[in-house]
Amino acid sequence: MEIEGPRGDTEKASKRGDWIKLLKLFFTCAASFGVQFVLAIETSVLAPYSQSLGIPHKFDSMIWMFGPVVGLLVQLVVGYYSDRCTVKLGRRRPFLIGECCVICLSLMLMGYAADLGIHLGHTKQKCSTYTSTQWAAVAVFVVGFLMLDCVVHMAQGTLRAMMIDLSCKRISYSSYPLPLPQYLAAMPCL
């Protein structure tokens, strides 16, 4: 959109609009970095913390299997509904706001699983001195972990779609054949 200023400064207005689009794309990429950071926290916390709660090694792999399977299905559903969203905030933002709130909730559930287990009826001994499995704390931890894994996959799909929405307007098409990598990169924008 070109806006004419008092002297007919359409070029400055279009450059300003390009910078605003580029800034939006940068912040979207920063949000994607945040999601990757949450995945790193999830990866580093699962094994040591779950073992301190008393979960055997063989059940850790069962917990890890849940994420990719659910992510495969959930990304399709969230993508379908976010493409058809007509809220004033935009197509992707309401989903991102909800996903961020659930990520915060699930990180708190995982972090305070032992304390919540004590409130649900376990002894007041610390996890490092308690030798048997604390089932209430394990249940809180597993629910928080599964929520986090599911919502992180949802957020990745939503952020990818938002990046494509923001960057596709900058691609110019020509009648000349494109090299294969450029053609594949432009495919989502067609």
Quick overview of this protein structure:
With 190 residues, the protein is an all-alpha fold. Helix content is 72%, strand content 0%. The two termini are 21 Å apart.
Describe the structure.
With 190 residues, this protein is mainly alpha-helical. It has one domain. Helices cover 72% and strands 0% of the residues. It has helices at residues 10-52, 57-83, 93-111, 113-119, 135-167, 180-186. The chain starts with 9 loop residues before the first helix and ends with a helix.
Measured as a percent range, the helix fraction is over 70%
Share of β-strand residues = under 5%
> On the 0-100 scale, what is the average pLDDT?
75
Which stretches are low in confidence, meaning pLDDT under 50 for 5 or more residues running? 1-5, 171-179
Radius of gyration: 23 Å
Count of helical regions? 6
**Overall number of structural domains:** 1
Distance between the termini: 21 Å
For the report, how would you describe the main beta sheet?
none
Essential attributes:
6 helices, about 70% helix, mainly alpha, disordered N terminus, about 190 residues
Task: Detail the topology: elements first, then pairings.
Layout: H1 10-52, H2 57-83, H3 93-111, H4 113-119, H5 135-167, H6 180-186
Helix pairs in contact: 1-5, 2-5, 3-5, 4-5
